[in-house]
Write a structure and sequence with these properties.
The protein has helices at 37-48, 64-71, 84-87, 134-138, 156-170, 209-218, 231-241, 261-266, 269-275, 287-299, 314-319, 332-337, 350-387, 396-406, 408-415, 438-462, 470-495, 508-511, 518-541, 546-555, and strands spanning 2-8, 11-14, 53-54, 60-61, 100-106, 114-121, 126-132, 141-144, 175-183, 193-202, 225-226, 258-260, 281-283, 305-308, 322-326, 340-342. The chain has three domains: 2-202, Calcium-transporting ATPase, cytoplasmic domain N, CATH 3.40.1110; 211-345, 3-Layer(aba) Sandwich (Rossmann fold); 352-555, no CATH class. The strands form four sheets. Strands 1, 2, 5, 6, 7, 8, 9 and 10 form an eight-stranded mixed sheet that branches. Strands 11-13-12 form a three-stranded parallel sheet. Strands 14-15-16 form a three-stranded parallel sheet. The protein contains 20 helices and 16 strands.
Length: 566
Amino acid sequence: MTVTYLYAVDDLVDLTPHLHPSFGPRHPDHADFSPSAAMIKTALIGNVCNNAFRNEQGVNVGQATEVALLNVLPVLGKDDERKVGLLLKLPQDKADRQNFVRKSEIPFSSEAKTMSVVGSLNGGSDMVYMKGAVEAVLAKCRYYYVTDSSTPSLDAAVQKTILDRANESAAKGLRVIAMAYGFAKDGAEPSNLIFAGFQAMMDPPRRGVSHAIAALHGAGVQIVMITGDSDTTALAIARELGLKVSSAGNAYAGSSSVMLGTQVDNLSERELIERVTSVTVFARTTPRHKMRIVKAWQMRGAVVAMTGDGVNDSPALKMADIGISMGKSGTDVAKEASDVILVNDDFSSILPAVEEGKSIFYNIQNFLSFQLSTAVAALSLITLSTFLQLANPLNAMQILFINILMDGPPAQALGVDPVDKEIMRRPPRKKGTNIISRRLMGRILFSAAMIVLGTLYIYALELSDGTMSRRDQTMVSAVPPCVYSYSRADLHHLCLPRPGIGHTEPRAHLRNVPEPNAHARGGRVVRGATRTDLRSAAATYLPDRGAVHSGSVHAVWTGGNEYGAA
């Protein structure tokens, strides 16, 4: 985060050409500028009303906004006015000079939207220094700063000018922090302050976030921004990230995709539940607003994942179905309240997690489809042959091999099948969706019926001579894997479109077209089916070995890795 604009009534300066190369681009050919007294005062307030500090490596560390306020000081030719040596706990002889002595602090809160400290600068009288949201700071100001000897009254016209300039900066996606100061009053809230100016800072989105948001949108996931920034800043950032926001209207319009925290307060629980789906950006929010928004989504039956890093985010993280905190910048309270911690603070890490979650669900369905199809088929064969008073089509050894060798390894392979990128194009499931759905039951019955019909056909054909030999049983036992392979792979997978995806082209290994996963997925099926056919033929036409290979026919079949996929 970098301060790019500095404002004092009425002068807005772009600092980009003057930024130090350690935290911004450098323009050596650009002439140096001379900041006004009001800009120096604005930077000074941002310096003393600050909890960031310089570590032993000489790097400013702390909250990102406060670090940016310290990093801009060299651009103005100023140093840190606080006693940095004591913050670092250095020996007294190595400590920096103490120009500012802090006496007390009122920390930032989402409700007040301000932070203030009381202290003396250069041994002078105790003063209060405040920073925060522009509208919150202006509400406590009565004058504005020009020079030490000139502090005119802050009338409505000047306030409007300040707000207009702040909105101009916010429309560029910049975070605007206003500065003010005044005389300290014991035990009293700061008031009648002098407005100095504001600093506007840029917080560029991380690389890959826009792509992750686009992919999540394609998967039917709705992304909502909840921030304490102004609605103008939040809307500009949302558009930059590719969030679905309306191109026109303001935060006060009923059809707008932006809603302020004050508007949330004015809505009843039922009204918020009705409107929450049409709002993409919530601005100027507090922890209480975040909890109400999360609850409203949950009341609509949605699965809510909440990301956050601060103490103020903890209640919403705890309430959400999935709380996600930041590993680097997140506070200990936020990490404790969350279910997942992003160790790299990268929002795009959520995308592969969603892909894996979707893949696990469908892999479980594939596993069940494969296992239950063969189990139902085998049970049906035994039941039908018993009712029809026919010889058992499968002996005990063949049934055992089918259950252990043919069902086990292929089903396990289905359970760990790699993530299919097309899975993100499927719409989200409802929270109470059963794994064994009607469609899955249809797939199971379809596959089982194909196996039973194919097996019964061969069974009837082999019984035409009136006897059931070992060769006949071998022929019957070779049918289920072959029938299952073709019924699932050719008919079900290739001919039927996937739900939510539409028409799917035939797999590359069946079209002789290269595919990245052809070796891992398709090649495995083709080689396995070939070995199955060879061993089936050997078992059929070499009767002296039929008993040995009758079970092995099923053990080497490795197909069906994703052919149970919906």
